[in-house]
Every structure is written in structure tokens, then in C-alpha cells.
From TrEMBL:
Residues 14-205 form the GH11 domain. The lineage of its organism: Eukaryota, Fungi, Dikarya, Ascomycota, Pezizomycotina. This is Endo-1,4-beta-xylanase. It comes from Lasiosphaeria ovina. Residues 1-17 form the signal peptide. PANTHER family: ENDO-1,4-BETA-XYLANASE A-RELATED. It catalyses: Endohydrolysis of (1->4)-beta-D-xylosidic linkages in xylans. Its EC number is 3.2.1.8.
């Protein structure tokens, strides 16, 4: 789950390896361990899509900002995993090196359902309730190469696809729980698949269209 600055020409990208590049006003990032069968599209503005299959391997793709931070992230779209997958606000900090997730929706596996997870509390934001979780990653890929680092997670109690995510609320809640943040690196609205299949079509910067109501 890492990204390096490699400029990619064209809108379509292979799932093999890592790519990262600006896309209009958004930062585009794509990482894969080379095992999933991926079809990804880096569309105009905040649009991107991915179809994955093969039920093996791991990937993370998405659009956002080359420097993360507290902001009101709006997005809309679809997310249909068959198996384990995450729709999240995803990013990294340095000093300390931290990989973080704000999970808005997930497939068959809830991230906190693991013996490695350390629960750090609960809080509410943007109309939803979240669990705070952390775990340690040892000698794993990172934006600084193979390293040992912490993961921080906010996990929404009920899946929500589209809307607004106030990232600053999560950063404050993590700090209050003793999970120290560092200097922000990139932050994206991300789709991740692990040993699964599925499709997703996301537009960053455009909130969902309100449902029509009767007169």
C-alpha cells in the first residue's frame, strides 16, 4: 500500500506496479502487488473506476491530494466488492510513519475483526459512529520502502457510499486516543481489494445527488 512519483501518460493504467501522477486538480495513485486482474481508469477531474477479479492479491487506487490534512472530503459513486474490499479516505504521514484509513464501507471482512487490532475507542462524525483501531506493521511496504510502522483506522459502523467525510475530526480523535500523527503525505479517496473481486466507480469532489422527495 505505497506510492512513488512516477508520471504516467494516458488515462488507462495497468495494475502492475505503482503509479502516481497529478490528474487535473487531483492526485492519482495506483498500487498493486501484481496479483489481481485489474482494469483501472483515471478519468477527468475527480473521476476514477476499477474492476478487479481473480480473488487473489492486493491493490489500492484512488484520487485525492498530494498533501493530506483536515478537509471536508465529498465524493459519490458505487462500490461493489465480492469478498474483502474497502472504500476509505486513505493516506500516510511521516515522523512518525503512519498509514491511515477512514473506512466508509467494507466487504466481507471488518478490519477490526483481527487478533492484531487494538481498539482505542469510539466517536461520531458526519452523522456516523466510528470505531478507532490501531495495529503494527512489521517489515512491510511503505512510502519509505520496507519499514515498521503503525496503522490507524476509523471504521464506520454502517456502510456509507458517498457524502462528506470531515477528516480533521478523525485526526483529532486519533490524537485524543494517543495515536500521534506526523507530517501529512498524500491522502486519497481509495478503493482497496484483498483476495477478492468487484467494481467501483467514484467521483471525488462531487457529493451524491439528493434523493427526490414528493410534492
Amino acid at each position: 500500500m505505497l506510492s512513488f512519483a512516477i508520471l504516467v501518460l494516458g488515462l488507462w493504467a495497468s495494475g502492475l506496479g505503482v503509479v502516481a501522477a497529478p490528474s487535473a486538480n487531483y492526485f492519482w495513485s495506483s498500487w498493486s502487488d501484481g496479483k489481481p486482474k485489474l482494469t483501472t481508469k483515471n478519468g477527468a477531474d475527480g473521476k476514477f473506476s476499477v474492476k478487479w477479479s481473480g480473488d487473489k492479491g492486493n491493490f489500492v487506487i484512488g484520487k485525492g491530494w498530494s498533501t493530506g490534512g483536515a478537509r471536508e472530503v465529498t465524493y459519490s459513486g458505487t462500490f461493489e466488492p465480492v469478498g474483502n474490499g474497502y472504500l476509505s479516505i486513505y493516506g500516510w504521514t511521516t515522523n512518525p510513519l503512519v498509514e491511515y484509513y477512514i473506512i466508509e464501507a467494507y466487504g466481507t471482512h471488518k478490519p477490526s475483526n483481527t487478533s492484531e487490532a487494538k481498539m482505542k475507542g469510539n466517536f461520531t462524525s458526519d452523522g456516523g459512529s466510528y470505531e478507532i483501531m490501531t495495529k503494527q506493521r512489521v517489515n512491510k511496504p511503505s512510502i519509505q520502502g520496507t519499514a515498521t510502522f503503525a496503522q490507524y483506522w476509523s471504521i464506520r459502523s454502517e456502510n456509507k457510499i458517498g457524502g462528506t467525510v470531515s477528516t480533521g475530526n478523525h485526526f483529532k480523535a486519533w490524537e485524543a486516543a494517543g495515536l500521534k500523527m506526523g507530517k501529512q503525505n498524500y491522502m486519497i479517496v481509495a478503493i482497496e481489494g484483498q483476495d477478492s473481486s468487484g467494481t467501483a466507480d467514484i467521483t471525488v469532489g462531487v457529493p451524491p445527488t439528493p434523493a427526490a422527495t414528493g410534492a
